[in-house]
Amino acid sequence: MNAHGRLIEALRAHALVLGEVTLTSGLKAQYYVDAKRAILLPAGFLALAELLAERARDWNATAVGGMTMGADAVTCAALAGGADVKGFFVRKAAKRHGLARRIEGPLLAAEDRCLVVEDVVSTGGSTIAAIEALQEAGHEICGVVSVLDRLAGGGERIATAAAAPYVALVTIDDVYPERPDRR
Q: Which of the four pLDDT bands, split at 50, 70 and 90, describes residue 100?
């Protein structure tokens, strides 16, 4: 089985949670995909690492990261997969102490090409916040990758905000095709 199939299998087995939940956006849903449950296990992490390193190479990324929590494991997977990139995390707000940085990790240079990553996209709000922080700091976005897209319109919003391609490695159709709200 290829890396894409292994990632879907890991998400189905470990990340799909049935029952009402409140999403980051505040919307209610009858299922939840807690991608961290799958990608922080060896099989899911290795599949993700392979897919992300390939995407980073394809888009000539020199840095990979995104909004902290959603991007943390995903960023680390790109590094573990052999992507020759700097890893970074974007905070919701700059720290008030220390170096008072909003973008953490190795310093990003003006010429760095940033691949923004996220675990799960619904409306795209947190990913767009990371994109805006990078753009405000003068960094180029070469693309955006999510582990899973819930197909709630976030992907289109992200691509517009980034002015760069957006790719979901997996969609909710792959993980939960029999869901009650399938369009």
A: low
How far apart, in Å, are the Cα atoms of 180 and each of 17, 70, 107? 14, 26, 45
Q: Dig out the tokens for 107 from the structure.
A: 């310093």
Residue 89 in tokens: 């995390």
Amino acid at 62: T
Number of domains in the chain: 1
Domain enclosing residue 167, as ranges: 48-175
Which H helix or E strand runs over 107? none
> If you ran DSSP here, which 8-state letter would residue 178 be given?
T
User: Per the confidence metrics, is the pTM higher than 0.85?
Assistant: yes
- DSSP states of 19-58: EEEE-TTS-EEEEEE-THHHHTSHHHHHHHHHHHHHHHHH
Average pLDDT of the residues in 167-171: 98
Report if residue 60 sits inside a domain. Answer: yes
SS3 71: coil
Assigned domain for 22 exists: no
Give the list of residues 6+ apart from residue 32 with CB closer than 8 angstroms, or none.
16, 17, 19, 21, 23
